Amino acid sequence: MQVLIMGSGTAVAESAAERVSAVIAANPSATIGVATGSSPLGIYAALQRRVEMGSISFARASAFALDEYVGIPADHPQSYTSVIAQEVTERLGFDPQRVHVPNGRAADLDAAAEAYDAAIAAAGGVDIQILGIGANGHIGFNEPTSSFGSRTRVKTLAPGTRAANARFFESIDDVPRHCLTQGLGTILEARELVLVAQGERKADAVAAAVEGPLTAMVPASALQLHPRATVIVDEAAAARLTLTDYYRSAAVPLS
Ligand code: GLP
Q1: Which of helix, strand or coil describes residue 75?
Q2: Span 10-37, mean pLDDT?
Q3: How many C-alpha atoms does 198 have within 13 Å on its Cβ side?
Q4: Tens of pLDDT, residues 34-90
Q5: What is the pLDDT of residue 98?
Q6: Is the distance from CB of 205 to CB of 211 less than 8 angstroms?
Q7: What CA–CA distance (Å, rounded) separates 98 from 123?
Q8: 118, 133 Cβ separation under 8 angstroms
Q9: Within 13 A of 112's CA, how many CA atoms are on the CB side?
Q10: Is residue 84 helix, strand or coil?
């Protein structure tokens, strides 16, 4: 795993955007794994600038979102279908037909989950997956105790996750209790993973994911199993890491 400690949230976003840009420049039909939450928003803004400058285009690319709430309509402003349409599809100029979000409204959620994994496979897999991290170490909505082998499936949100996401809703009672989320096993199949975290609220989760034991109690520790995982954090989110000297020296290019 590579750990990059950046001087600002903007630098975190730029660094992650650079990796996504490299993938799309090498293959304009690449499949990008996209995430919701506030952490990746700077990445999308940085990518949008590149699109507007004409240096990259997502017109032929595909995207798969990590997760979706169960129990709210697709046109709810906080559904991940709405958020991805607004923050990713429109801003970056994806073809809406090639942007996929799990169907949290399906009558048969298990079948929808299975179909989602099949759609990722049919698209040839995810080339680069953008990830945020929850304060409890979740990625996607894989809450603590999620299996490292898990596939896309229905999950129950942890009380702390519902409390954290209440800021997007009128009250905590409006936050859905369930979701469909790519599993850790699904996420680990992406060819490259880029996890971003900013702020001291994420410092414990980042340290546990990067330097702690592999444990289902910290779902993001699954990144330790991936051959091409990069964790990009600002100084505040890096505050609980112990090997910062090493990460800083390893960030210097080979001469
Ligand atoms: C959300 C999402 C995750 C996200 C995380 C952190 O609930 N399901 O994909 O990484 O929580 O969100 P934020 O970036 O807003 O802190």
Answers
A1: coil
A2: 98
A3: 18
A4: 999 999 999 999 999 999 999 999 999 999 999 999 999 999 999 999 999 999 999
A5: 98
A6: no
A7: 10
A8: no
A9: 18
A10: helix
Give the whole-angstrom CA distance, residue 175 versus residue 158: 11
How far is the CA of 50 from the CAs of 11, 126, 129, 212, in angstroms? Answer: 15, 21, 19, 36
CA–CA separation, 178 vs 176, rounded Å?
A: 6
- Tell me whether residue 103 is one of the annotated catalytic residues: no
The model carries a pTM of 0.97
Q: Ligand 1 pocket: which residues have CB below 6 Å?
A: 35-39, 66-67, 132-134, 140-141, 161, 165
How far apart CA 115 and CA 213 sit, in angstroms, is 32
Using alpha carbons, list the distances in angstroms from residue 205 to 9, 102, 187.
Answer: 17, 26, 18
Compute how many other C-beta atoms are within 10 angstroms of the C-beta atom of residue 85: 18
Please give the pLDDT value at position 52.
98
Catalytic (active site) residue 76? no
Residue 251 has pLDDT above 90, yes or no: no
How far is it, in rounded angstroms, from Cα 194 to Cα 132? 9
The closest-lying atom of ligand 1 relative to the alpha carbon of residue 157 is 7
Catalytic residue flag (residue 235): no
Radius of gyration of the chain (CA): 17
Task: Catalogue all structural domains in the chain, each as residue range(s) with its CATH number.
Answer: 2-234 (3.40.50.1360)
Local structure of residue 55 (DSSP, 8 states): S
How far does Cα 106 stand from its chain's mean position? 23
Q: What is the pLDDT of residues 86-132, one digit of tens each?
A: 999 999 999 999 999 999 999 999 999 999 999 999 999 999 999 99
